[in-house]
Amino acid sequence: MISAGVQSTDLSLVARELGDLSVIELKIPEIYWDDEAAVSLLVEYFTRRRSRGDLFYSGARFERLGGGGDAEHVADSFDSNDLVAITTLSVSLEPHGAMNLLTDPEGHWARLLSLIPRDARLENPGSDALMEEGGPAWELWERLAGTKQYPGKRDGSGPVVAGKLLARKAAAPHPHLRHPHQATVRAVEDGPTLLDRAGCDPAGGQRCLP
Predict the structure, then answer these.
(1) Contact, 184 vs 194, CB < 8 A?
(2) Is 22 helix (H, G, I), strand (E, B) or coil?
(3) Mean per-residue pLDDT for 18-24?
(4) 43 three-class SS
(5) How confident is the model at residue 17 (pLDDT cuts 50, 70, 90)?
(6) In sequence order, which residues have a C-beta less than 8 Å from that of residue 164 and are 6 or more positions away?
(7) How far is the C-alpha of 187 from the C-alpha of 193, rounded, in Å?
């Protein structure tokens, strides 16, 4: 996603190897730590419109397009709205990959999505079993990303597409599934629910990502 006034390359993930551990470092521009500036960027991103009246940034529709990927009637499957939604973030599946997600011939997508509670949260220790190796959220990302354990990834898929597809299924608690801006997307749309969604408390001295 490209934030208003800030290029996507400014938010970068850097992998570092520390012994047997792979550590992902998220580099966040200083402007995002300025509350007023961050809010201004978010408001522009989600409200700015083109001269014809539609939203200027296509990614502003990513989460809630078609009612959202976590809507009750589609939470346990991928649908056409999910496939269109990821194109607003400049990625897409190839035709055969898209058809596989929509038809689910092997039943993997419905099986795994149905095992992830819609109200699951990454910060909740109760979600650990979902994210651990062998858990449904872990397996879902692995299958979509096409890892060594599940090498038969769908045409056009991979880690980037997998992350965006699973960000559409907003309750999914795998570390790879959460889009960095998910909590703020909901905050802009839902108002004062940001702390509940993000699981952080600025008043308590915690630094909440914008």
Answers:
(1) yes
(2) strand
(3) 47
(4) helix
(5) very low
(6) 62, 86, 89, 91, 179
(7) 6
